[in-house]
Design a protein that fits this description.
The complex is a heterodimer of chains A (444) and B (413). Chain A has 444 residues and is of the alpha/beta class. Chain A has 17 helices and 15 strands. Chain A folds into 2 domains: 2-242 and 417-443, Rossmann fold (3-Layer(aba) Sandwich); 248-414, Glycogen Phosphorylase B (Rossmann fold, 3-Layer(aba) Sandwich). Chain A has helices spanning 2-6, 25-39, 73-81, 99-107, 134-151, 165-175, 187-191, 198-210, 219-228, 273-286, 301-310, 325-334, 349-356, 369-372, 384-396, 398-414, 417-443, and strands at 10-14, 43-48, 61-64, 113-115, 122-124, 156-160, 179-183, 213-216, 236-238, 259-264, 290-295, 317-321, 337-340, 361-364, 377-379. In chain A, strand 10 (259-264), helix 10 (273-286) and strand 11 (290-295) form a beta-alpha-beta unit. Chain A starts with a helix and ends with a helix. Chain B has 413 residues and is an alpha/beta fold. Chain B folds into 2 domains: 3-289, Alpha-Beta Barrel (7-stranded beta/alpha barrel), CATH 3.20.110; 306-411, no CATH class. In chain B, strands 1, 2, 3, 8 and 11 form a 5-stranded parallel beta sheet that branches. A 5-stranded mixed beta sheet of chain B has the order 4-5-7-6-12, sandwiched between helices. In chain B, strands 9-10 form a two-stranded parallel ribbon. In chain B, helix 1 links the parallel strand 1 (3-10) and strand 2. The chains are: A alpha/beta (444), B alpha/beta (413).
């Protein structure tokens, strides 16, 4: 029994993105976890749909699914025949899709399979983004996963979010190794209650049913998994995310006179951008010297621009579109207040990033991060009055701002990826041990 | 002669409504009276009424042999007059028995003593006047807001004509000395001090219902045994919030039963008498002077003022508020003065204590010390704006008067 614990384990991890090619919190979380896990002696094979070649291979062996050969022609043919041909879906339901990417997708539909003429092996091609052909990519990914599971040796499978669940299920079927799924977000967070995408829900549910352990990023997510996906509480573990240390003093641009309030995230229903606009309007009625910045893009972008124009705030309310991390850091270091009005936020790493830049945060109570950060102003996302109160107070009472950011340092030190990885490692050992006992008893 | 002195603090603060920043300058009504009324009635039902009834029973049963001491803040008297006259009546009945001593305290449950002696004296006098008006007695001894006390406060009180005060028996000021004697102020030598017996008081006020405590369950016999075990038992001063009876400690914990049994047990086994601070100060001489250069209080483990003034938010608000003193008093505007004084309640500063962020057992999960600060500073800002407006309008009036005068001069032959 003890030898299992001592032996260094290998984890086959399925993700959708890996730094530096990231578009949201998922890639950041995967990187933070794998980095800390590898420091603890866990070997990780990290599979992404498309490897660009410049991924950080120090922390994990990053494998691109597009470089895994195929010998099973039947499977490929069935793949071509069935429903993972070109599928146009509502882009609002696809996470992390920017408008540029969307146009690119529509204009250059990816070719599904590239066969090499000289041999019988074939490769799938992946875009690795969140295009409209997403479902077929998810299906193709799962087929490749089976082949990967066959050719590598490992102790457990770990999947991040619904895009990879099918791959995880396939890998488990082939290898008979335990499957852990990591819920960073659910369909209920993305689309709000009532108008969920049934297809995604089904995949998520399948993944949870097949999993040996479900890892949720917050109690909020755990509640959703229990109430909407009807999973047993015993199967669920909550591991809060951490935050990577950024060196905020490297980006010091504080040479400004205007006060800046920042919203950062996809401009979509889940993130509650309109509540931010409402609160901004209330603040601006009293204080004209405040500038509001909305960083990000998304399906509600045009509506928000129109709403801002209609309220007559356009001269003090700025949209930047999607920004890369270094630009985000610049904006954060310029900000006086960071606001996260999410309607349903499984975690919300960006709030922690803002704290690292000594920016006080106003966060919605409907977020995972509010469970772990004490020194923040917490409001209900729909309560624009309270949100405006909080923003106004942080802009005008320097004592409050100072006290809060100082105290928040304590919160931050408790939130590291090391702590998350430590918890995760013990869960790995637990499930590995359990399945080995399980299978050996079956065999015996 | 040995004495037990039982002190109870009776105070509830006004509840402020959620005051938004966009109300600043337009809305001058800060208090949510409905919430205050609800709170008062709830506590009255759980604690004040049944506890008063118990005291009445004890006095009827044992007559002159028992006595209790109450410190009722001015704010509380005001609130009872408006929202709970039946409660006020029950206090009045108790006081007419003559076995209750009423202590003087700052009217607004404030910490004015450590910031402005002028304001402090004013509030103490206001409280004396209000007590006289309602209960027909004039307090001769003093308990400050949550027992905040230092030597200089004793001097002020002595000058005001008080005989003595009940103060916290903080271990860092008493050192090797027992709290169970009468002491005096080192400067004003005839100002006597009774020290609250920390351990025995908190055995009831904090630990009574704690089932993990080694002393659980606490009975009157056991409690008396602890008192007798200390050879220095001259005067045992027990003090706590009245809300311990039935509110902080639920009736089911047996707290009423415990208090009902105390006099019987005491008379049965010992020669202790129940005395009020006034009786003790008359009968006993001070054994020594105790130096208390820095403020002590009964709050938190530190027993100093850090509970209210421990973080920047609290100090900021406290300093801001008292910076207005001169302007508020100069304005001579009664409503303004009243609003300013109500803001001084120490409980509001306590709400800004950051320990509430981590302490789990708060009834209101949405409560945040940051929000408490924001709300009060918004109110403060409105108050400040009113002062500015007042100054401005008076300036206009004066100018007008000057102009009129000059016009008159012109028209005079």
């Amino acid at each position: 029994m003890e030898c299992i614990l001592k032996k260094s384990m290998t984890i086959l991890m399925f993700g959708w993105e890996f730094p530096p090619h990231i578009t949201g919190g998922l890639g950041t979380a995967c990187f933070g976890l794998t980095k800390s896990l590898s420091m603890m002696g866990v070997n990780i094979i990290f599979v992404v749909p498309k490897a660009y070649g410049d991924e950080n291979n120090e922390v994990a062996n990053v494998v691109g699914a597009d470089s895994v050969p195929f010998n099973n022609i039947d499977m490929i043919e069935s793949a071509q025949k069935s429903d993972f041909k070109y599928l146009s879906i509502n882009s609002a339901l696809v996470p992390y899709l920017s408008e540029e990417q969307y146009y690119q997708m529509v204009n250059n539909p990816t070719t599904c399979i590239a066969k090499k003429e000289d041999s019988k092996t074939a490769y799938f091609s992946f875009s690795g983004t969140y295009g409209p052909d997403l479902y077929s990519e998810v299906e193709r990914y799962s087929i490749v996963a089976a082949s990967i599971a066959d050719s590598y040796s490992f102790d457990a499978i770990h999947c991040h979010d619904w895009l990879t669940y099918k791959a995880g299920i396939e890998a488990k079927r082939v290898s008979k190794k335990p499957l852990l799924i990591h819920v960073h977000a659910t369909e209920y967070d993305r689309s709000g209650t009532g108008k969920i995408n049934q297809r995604i829900y089904d995949i998520e549910r399948q993944g949870m049913e097949a999993a040996d352990k479900i890892i949720c990023v917050s109690n909020l997510t755990k509640d959703i998994v229990v109430n909407h996906y009807h999973q047993s509480i015993d199967k669920i573990v909550v591991i809060h995310n951490g935050v990577e240390k950024t060196y905020s003093h490297m980006v010091n641009l504080k040479r400004k006179t205007k006060k800046i309030v920042t919203f950062l995230g996809r401009i979509t229903y889940q993130k509650g951008p309109e509540y931010f606009v409402n609160a901004a309007y209330k603040v601006m009625e009293v204080d004209k010297d405040v500038h509001f910045v909305m960083v990000g893009s998304g399906d509600m972008y045009n509506r928000m621009v129109a709403l801002v124009a209609k309220s007559g705030m356009a001269d003090r309310f700025h949209f930047t579109g999607f920004l890369q991390q270094n630009e985000v850091n610049k904006i954060l270091s310029l900000s006086d207040v960071y606001v996260m009005p999410s309607v349903s936020e499984p975690f919300g790493i960006s709030a922690l990033e803002a704290l690292q830049f000594d920016v006080p945060i106003v966060i919605s109570r409907q977020s995972g991060v509010s469970e772990v950060v004490d020194n923040a102003l917490k409001v209900d996302y729909w309560d624009s009055d309270a949100m405006a109160d909080a923003i106004y107070a942080l802009l005008h009472h320097s004592t409050l701002k100072r006290t809060m950011t100082k105290a928040a340092k304590k919160d931050l030190t408790n939130l590291s990826w090391q702590a998350a990885a430590f918890k995760l490692k013990s869960i790995y050992s637990e499930v590995i041990k359990f399945t080995q006992l399980d299978y050996s008893s079956v065999e015996g | 002669m040995n004495a037990i002195c039982l002190n109870f603090k009776v105070h509830l603060p006004y509840q402020y409504k959620k005051y938004h920043f966009f109300n600043i300058g337009s809305d001058h009504e800060y208090v949510d009276y409905e919430a205050g009324k609800h709170m008062l009635r709830q506590v009255a039902q759980r604690c004040y009424m049944p506890a008063n009834a118990m005291m009445m029973d004890l006095i009827e049963k044992y007559g002159n042999k028992v006595s209790f001491t109450f410190t009722i803040s001015g704010t509380m008297m005001e609130m009872m007059q408006i929202f709970a006259p039946e409660l006020l009546n029950s206090f009045k009945q108790l006081i007419t028995t003559g076995r209750i001593e009423l202590m003087a305290t700052p009217y607004y449950h404030s910490l004015a003593a450590i910031k402005s002696s002028d304001e402090f004296k004013k509030q103490v006098k206001m409280h004396q006047k209000k007590t006289m008006e309602i209960f027909g007695v004039k307090p001769r001894n003093f308990i400050n807001t949550d027992m905040v006390y230092a030597d200089y406060i004793g001097v002020i009180l002595s000058e005001m004509g008080f005989k003595g005060a009940v103060v916290e028996g903080a271990k860092h000021v008493l050192g090797w000395r027992s709290p169970n004697y009468v002491y005096s102020n080192p400067i004003a030598r005839n100002f006597k001090l009774l020290f609250r017996n920390q351990d025995l008081s908190d055995d009831i006020a904090i630990r009574f219902s704690n089932t993990f405590w080694t002393g659980y369950p606490l009975t009157a016999e056991k409690f008396l045994d602890w008192i007798m075990r200390d050879p220095n038992h001259r005067t045992i001063t027990i003090a706590m919030d009245y809300r311990v009876l039935g509110d902080y400690m639920d009736t089911s914990s047996g707290i009423f039963h415990f208090f009902t049994n105390i006099p019987r047990t005491v008379f049965q086994y010992t020669d202790f008498q129940f005395l009020t601070p006034d009786e003790i100060f008359n009968k006993m001489d001070s054994v020594a002077a105790v130096y208390i250069p820095n403020e002590t209080s009964w709050q938190a483990a530190e027993r100093d003022t850090s509970f209210w003034l421990g973080n920047d938010l609290q100090r900021d608000f406290f300093n801001k508020l008292y910076a207005l003193e001169e302007a508020v008093k100069y304005s001579n505007d009664k409503a303004l003065l009243n609003d300013w004084r109500r803001l001084q309640d120490a409980d509001y500063l306590g709400d800004m204590n950051l320990r509430w962020l981590t302490e789990q057992n708060i009834s209101n999960k949405k409560f945040s010390p940051y929000n408490a600060y924001i709300n009060l500073v918004n109110i403060y800002n409105d108050l400040e704006m009113r002062i500015q407006q007042l100054k401005f309008s008076r300036m206009v009036v004066r100018k007008k008067m000057r102009n009129e005068k000059s016009e008159e001069l012109v028209f005079e032959p």
